[in-house]
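Ticket #4471: complex job returned nothing on first submit. Input attached below:
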Amino acid sequence: MNPTRTLHTVASCAALLFWAALLVYFCASDRITAFLHPMFRPWSMAAGILLGILAVLYAVAVRKSPDSCCDGEDCAETGSRGVMPRVAALLLLVGAPLGAAVLSADGFSTHTVYNRGIVTDASGLSAGRERPEGDLPGGVGGEAEPFALPKDAEGRLQAEVIDLVYGTQDEGIRKDFEGKPVVVVGQLLPATEMNPDGDRMKLVRMFMICCAADARPIAVLFRKPDAFQAPEMSWVRVSGRATFPTVGGSRIVLIDPAEVEPCDPPEETMLF
Amino acid sequence: MSGFSFHAQDFAYAFLSILFEGMPFVLLGTLLSGIIDAFLPGHVMTRFLPRNRAGAIAVSGLLGLVLPMCECGIVPVIRRLIRKGLPVSCGIAYMLAAPILNPVVALSTFAAFRGQSPEAMTVLRLALGYLAAVLAAFAVHAFAGDRILRPGVLAVGGAGSAVNARRRTDFQIPGSGEGAADPAPTVGNRWAHAVRVAVTDFLDVAVYLVIGAALASLFNTSVDQERILPLAGNPPAATAAMMGLAAILSLCSTSDAFIAATFTAFPAASKLAFLVFGPMFDCKLLFLYAAVFRRRFVLVLGAGLFAVVWFLATMAGKALP
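Support reply: We reran it on our side without changes. The output follows.
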């Protein structure tokens, strides 16, 4: 095998193995949970494994091909580019994601959260997104149904931000929550609007459709205890009674009065 | 706050998420392209298409119903199909229509727009996607293949010449002997060839996905998306803004309806334009298409699609509440 072809083969196999390792590492380490909807995660794992296998098969397949292959510009397997530009492209294929994997904090900062616009009522979510059956107390309008949401030791409903936000548009869900004690986990942000007395804060979660790139921040408001302070975007557990006041023509969620305590991030930082 | 501000960690996070979502489908498409190249006899595609130009383009636009592909996966497939003898115009009709005109997209659009005329939105999305793809294909048919395709796309099988490229718009291709599979006497050799082609295509297309994902992530995290909200009250501007947003966000066609439906302040026509234009042309596709087509053609295609989709969506929007 000539040196040019050897370089091309080695670089190609290395790029495939890098991508295999990257995908398998993110899946095996559960870092993938911050990046993809559960539906897409098995695809990533399968792709990682398949790329590893493909790297081995490629090395074998190249040995079986005629030695003249990949020397010319018209080679079917190198396209119109020469070998060196191709190797440079492979460096980009490896270098860019490697740099991103090192740099990524596996979550958005306030910068992007604000850029995307924080949704506080369900009219800002797709009309087609239904709350999953059985995940919410009673179902739509089901006043007499037993609550399906788990309760903590103090009898508070363990809700997600998305459950409460749906209550701004769905009367049945609203009735299920209104006036009841709830406990919700999310990230802390100041409330720059809908905060007439300056004593409210936002509890934010990212709501993902497919991947983090399409995630949108959704939030409920809570009345913070006096002298409460915590860094922006820190994870907190907020408990109190769920209310649904109307502010400026839109219904919002306000947890009032609220207790706030720092907590660890949940296993799934995104909501789906 | 200005409309654009860069944050490296957020960029890296969004960039990786797009790559992790798209890469398995690129791999799927390239595996399919390897199998097509090794096992699909030359011109078998054209044998199943009507001989006349209009019929062939019209049928190609419907191929997504039987061979559904997302916009990431379809690029390597289309490259191989063109190399195997599919006329460029038919390839473009399939490439542009398939990410929209497939069962998964129809179902997701219907689900996302519940409460917002889901039947009309779904039917119009599929119909406009098909129409825009077919119109683009007819426009492309006027040009010779070598003015459209990237050098080297047809360079295979000993007939990789400009003549070969020019003839890719000719519907008398079957029987000409071009684009035949490499002579591979054994099944083992064919599989080895399939692996080599799949790997080459994967590495080729993945580079473009990386560049496109970087551009999409840059806009995705750095642009204040609420800046477009004031345009919602002006229908023509709203439609153009939503199409621009679709190009910037570079969403997957199977899930973009869930995002489009949330823009409740925008007219239905603008959301329809978002759903039709996005899967046909966005930041990542700008680079992915460059794996097959000349860069100038890609830009012209983007501009043409923008104008056609804007017009069609504006007209169709009159039928929507």
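Chain B touches chain A through 80 residues (CB under 8 Å). Closing as resolved unless it happens again.
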